[in-house]
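Q: Can I see a sequence and its folded structure?
A: Here is a first one.
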Amino acid sequence: MVISTEWLSPQLVRVRFGGPGFSSFEDRPETDKYVKLKFTTPPPESHPVTRTYTVRRVDAESRTLDIDFVVHGDEGLAAPWAATAAPGETLSLMGPGGGYRPDPEADWYLFTGDLSAVPAIAAGVEALPTDAVGVVLIEVDTEDAILELTAPAGIEVRWLVDDAHGTDFLAEAVRALSWRDGRVDVFAHGERESMKALRRVFFDERGLERSQVSLSGYWARGRTEDRFQAEKREPIGKIMPAD
């Protein structure tokens, strides 16, 4: 059940869920944990579809969970719903799943992605030890998308504005970093082709091990959500060659 909504920026709205259904939610330790939300398409088709979203925060004390939705006008199904969601509305939720939590043995950390990855990046950074060092690189379209993130003093947060939507934008930003000594723990999630470009940096150029890198595509430019999900089973949809 929707408890409240809050606009974090013109592009990002937070929906807080709670109510009796919270008792059946089994939390997980991963910072990129996600749930599948069930929506109904508009008439006349009106068939159920699922959309996957990162859980930004779980508050066991208040028995609520937050999910942040990227909103671009009336595009899509989940985002327009979130933009107008009212307290008391209900939504079916399945999960959570998850795959990443910061490695406590790492020497430094690198988080990178676009606005779609901000919830998972923010949760990951908040879970770091207080003495953690590293950098966060987040690509956004406009300056009004920039948010305040809570991070340890040794974590530098850089918001990078890219209104040209360049596939290699984040890859070039990572290439330009002063690479630290020691073992890095990488979290890189976002637009699919941008993640493929980062794959080449991390594995071909930097020679990182698979165990050091969490790399995933959350969406694909020019694709509907349904087409993007279908392409995950095709060669074009593979981020890693052996996925």
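Q: Show me another, different protein.
A: A second, unrelated one:
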Amino acid sequence: MKFGIDLAPVISPDEKSAVDYYEEALRLAVLAEELGYGHVRTVEHYFTYYGGYSPDPVAFLSAVAARTERIKLVTGAVLPVFSHPVQLAGKLAMLDNISKGRLAVGFGRAFLPSEFEAFNVPIDESHERFREGIEACRRLWAEEDVVWNGTFHSFGPVTLLPRPYQQPHPPVLVATARTPESCVAAGEAGFGLMMVPGINSAEQTQHMLSLYRQAWADAGHEPGGENVHMSYNVYIDEDGEEAYRRGRHYDPRIGAKLAHAVADWKTTRSSAYRGYEQLTQAPEGGDPFDEHIRDNKVLVGTPEHIRGQLAAVRDLYGDDLTISFLVSSGDMPVEDSMRAMRLLAEQVVPHLS
């Protein structure tokens, strides 16, 4: 297993100003390199408290690149459905050069109806726009004099500048939330996969991973070359009760912001997003926070307990995992995030790497 940090901002201006958030997030990114983490990752979202402080992950990761030397930079993810491919490929190639080849590009399809409405992009077109955007970027990176006549964009001949630092292009990952077809397409193309296991059952996640790995093998890609990223909220303390108290305070606040962001799925239906209305349904049965701990969807407890949770995750999903720890969210003091990173780096990661 490999490990890094996820700096997706789940936060409102009432909790923390943008200036303060960026300053603290950059401190965490620098600390991540000092502690030996493998990557820093952030997301692209708009308008809502669920990620809205990160409309341009390339801008943030460029600031990280300027302050670090070794740690990898991961877009988790950029959204080609809302960008022209020449513009998107160009600024990603620029970041690849600024960082001297430390970039891995995660592409996402987007899933918030309010974002599609704001960009005046029909949500039913998301699959086609997503696939076209990735392939256009890939060709712009890898080829010269590119002529593109797609469904949504036409251009060329174009030779992109700057050329990517990594040849033929940076590693590509594809984000999927609930769509098995995305896993198959990623495996066939030889791309990595980005998953959020907290929103699916273990059985669903295992099924999606099996589709990805089988598609990878059937396409003839190098055995063992699969690249699977997963992101987990983590609350850690040497005092297990304090870790639980902190998680009990912050995790529902994250859930509330997500619930508000996905509320439009109560009235939105799209053949491109089958089952997404389930994101708006309140969980049945017991306490969702305790159930998430039990099912290893959120990491909570002492370093020893979290080592056990991650070992269970590895047993469920395999050794080829890259784990992103979400250590900063809501109005959590940056000192608590830094302490969590140190505990993870010193008492958890060495036992599982």
